[in-house]
Amino acid sequence: MSDTPSPLAARILALLQQPTFFWQVIDALSDQTYRATLEAWSEVREGHDLDRDEHGRYWLKTAP
Amino acid sequence: MTIAVTASTDAGFEDFRGMLARMTREGQLRSVGKEVKPQHMTALIGQSPTALLFERVEAYDIPVVGGLFWTRARTASALGWPEAELGRRFAQGVARPFAPVMVENPPCQQKVVLGDDVDLSALPIPFMHQKDGGPYISAGIAFADDPDLGPNAGCYRLMFRTRREMAIDLFTASDLRRYYTRHFERGEPMPIAVAIGVHAFEHMGAAYKAPAGVDEMEIAGGLRGAPARLAACKTVPLKVPAHAEIVLEGELLPNGWTADEGPFGEFAGMQGDLKHNPIFRVNAITHRENPIFYALQMPWENDWLNGPATEAACMRILGLIGVQATAVRATEGGCCGWSVVAAIKKRAGEGKNAIAALLALPVVKQVIVTDDDIDIDDPAQVEWAVTFRCQADKDVVVLSGLKGKHVDPSQRPWDLKPGELPTTAKFGIDATIPEGIPAFRYERIEPAFRSAVQLRDYL
After folding, report:
1. B237-260 residue pLDDT tens
2. What is the pLDDT, as a whole number, of residue B210?
3. Is B32 helix (H, G, I), strand (E, B) or coil?
4. Is B38 in contact with A23 (Cβ distance < 8 A)?
5. Can you name the residues that pair with A52 across neighbouring β-strands?
6. What is the per-residue pLDDT across B298-335, written as a single tens digit (0 to 9) for each?
7. Which of B58, B162, B274 sits opposite A56 (nearest CB)?
8. Which residues make Cβ contacts (< 8 Å) with residue B337, sequence separation at least 6?
9. DSSP state, residue A14
10. Contact B133 A45 (CB under 8 A)
11. Per-residue pLDDT at A64 exceeds 80
């Protein structure tokens, strides 16, 4: 896997700077197909550790 | 585009496609030709009076079907059984299991994708509920085997993580959890296979909580009245339904309960909690030509898979105590397990005997018992019986401190200490004619000369 995220993965990583529900990821990427979003989500999960809160929201572990 | 919802070419054996074709003929399933996004399918199915087959799913070449067991009528249609017979037929099937037979060159392996070519994002795994943690495979039947415990099949949800990985919910006690724990303690991965899109007989057999050592596919054969047809997997030493639409082969990693999974819209109709669970790494995807993806819809579709088993258990326990049940219904609002209505041919005291027996079943939480002149499929008749045959101070039975379930918020499970199990109160309503009141006091009104006229002659 390249160190440089794909443009779509980069958009997801930007979202995950703060706690984000999965539906908000789909919503924010609504200009893309669902399938493209899943491919980018896979890329994000393969390359980054994600944290969760009790509501199920995601964020990057490196985020404050 | 025409989807091949036609009966199997395998003469005499109805597979998933044959079931869909029959449900279409019976008006329980219809096709949607307009393109739909995967994240919209659950909302659309919830608005539909029938199950739906989405022929065109945006960016995928795999159609998706859902809502097949959403109602009692659809469940009966899927099984090909009369609605009133679900419990009785299920009990007969469990009592007469058939050993499965093996099939060579099975339909489920018409296409094979291996190793690095596996990409789960190529499957139209839907995002179903607003607060879900991700897309879910909700209709997966997990198959496993153990040299000591034997083969096992069960229904487990799987959350999409990456192109090769799903998180599988093994949080609660189950046979698969037991199998996995043995591997986990040795630090070894455990081979499993997940079949998606199998006939109602195999799906309901897998959903049945069979006693340890009983092969659920033998139960499926009993329900079918003929052996289930299985095939050897390509990359793991397991057997799966030969006519499954899609099969995922791989291993549960020995990571234990560490991978985030959920929340997911649970079978009780409430959004569940975030959990931590094992990871399923997928090493192969096999499927039929032009496969159909099945997305089971929560909660009712999941609940109806267990409804016939609940009704069968109720009839069995009433039979054991000598109460003659004429009908038993596991009702939808009680998730086809928590709430039961039974009609009986009552002898003195048996209304309450029936309540005591039914409340002893592990899940059943509320019971209404009526006489056999009440049509328990008609809620108005049941309410009428409760209203006029019941005195609350004499005929409502309340039991406290029975075994409960974590999924019920009214038990405040969050207050439990780690490892502590919940207890619950249960109640039953004896809506049978009270002892000492003559039946003529309940004589129903009858339209004059009812048999002399037919409305159709006047329309």
Report:
1. 999 999 999 999 999 999 999 999
2. 82
3. strand
4. no
5. A58
6. 999 989 999 999 999 999 999 999 999 999 999 999 99
7. B274
8. B303, B306, B307, B310, B330, B363, B364
9. H
10. no
11. no
Which ranges of B212-263 does DSSP label H, i.e. alpha helix?
216-224
Per the CB < 8 A criterion, the answer to whether B153 and B136 are in contact is no
**Closest-CA residue to B298 (of B124, B74, B137):** B137
- Per-residue tokens: B29: 């399933």
Sign of CA dihedral B380, B325, B71, B29: negative
Indicate the angle between helix axes B350-359 and B307-320, nearest 10 degrees: 130
Candidates B135, B273, B274; nearest CB to A38: B135
Is the per-residue pLDDT at B41 higher than 90? Answer: yes
> What share of chain B has pLDDT > 70, as a percent?
98
User: What is the pTM for the complete model shown?
Assistant: 0.93
Residue owning tokens 């065109």:
B56
Q: Write the CA distances from B344 to B36, B133, B371, B433, integer angstroms.
A: 48, 45, 5, 11
Cis, bond preceding B299 (omega within 30 deg of 0) = yes
Crossing angle of helices B16-25 and B72-79, rounded to 10°: 120
Q: Do A38 and B125 touch (CB under 8 A)?
A: yes
CA distance B370 to B344: 6
**Four-residue CA torsion sign, B309, B404, B155, B177:** negative
Distance of residue B388 Cα from the nearest chain A Cα, in angstroms: 46
Mean pLDDT value of segment B184-195: 97
Q: Which of A21, A34, A53 sits opposite B59 (nearest CB)?
A: A34
Sign for the pseudo-dihedral over CA of B129, B72, B358, B224: negative
Interchain contact A54–B (C-beta under 8 A) = yes
Distance of alpha carbon B238 from alpha carbon B253, whole angstroms: 17
Rg (CA), chain A: 11
Average pLDDT over all residues of chain B: 94
Q: Which two tokens stand for residue B296?
A: 């089971």
For residue B441, give Cα distances in angstroms to B359, B373, B381, B428. 30, 14, 17, 24
Query: What is the predicted pLDDT for the residue at B6?
Result: 52
Extended beta strands in chain A, E state: 50-52, 58-60
Confidence of residue B1 (pLDDT cuts 50, 70, 90): very low
Task: Give the DSSP H/E element, type plus range, for residue B290.
Answer: none
Of B160, B161, B171, B166, give the one whose Cα is nearest residue B125: B160
Closest CA to B31 of B15, B20, B40, B47: B20
